[in-house]
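Researcher: Go.
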Amino acid sequence: MSAKFLVACGVGFMSSLFIGYCVYFDRKRRSDPDYKKKVLARRRAAERQSETMIDLRDPKAREEFLSSEKILAHRKLMEGNIEEAIGHLINMVQFSSNPNATLLSLQQVLPPPVFNILLHALKTLQQSAGPASAAKGEAPTDVD
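Model: Structure:
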């Protein structure tokens, strides 16, 4: 027997062991009573995530998103939940095509304390993004 033949047999044997290992654990995983529940939960979560993802290159989808964020922010402000409203307003500013114009319009509409909270949150967000956001040429958030 040559060395090449022994190496080929060894590789073949190890490959068959690996495939057997994979089949064994796949069967063990599928026989788990919660397997179907876990798979369905993962699929539902993936569907929800794909539904919430928007294509920002599509102007119609962007406008729908901005409109929904504006409505949600208004509702949260009416409920008195300023923190959640600020989150929706930040989304409006970040995803708008002209953040400075959006900030100017929000400054006219929002009460000064809420607008100041929004500015502070935007500054904090911009600082946490670091120099990468400054390198991209994002608009400054200072509006007086």
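Model: The longest helix spans residues 3-30.
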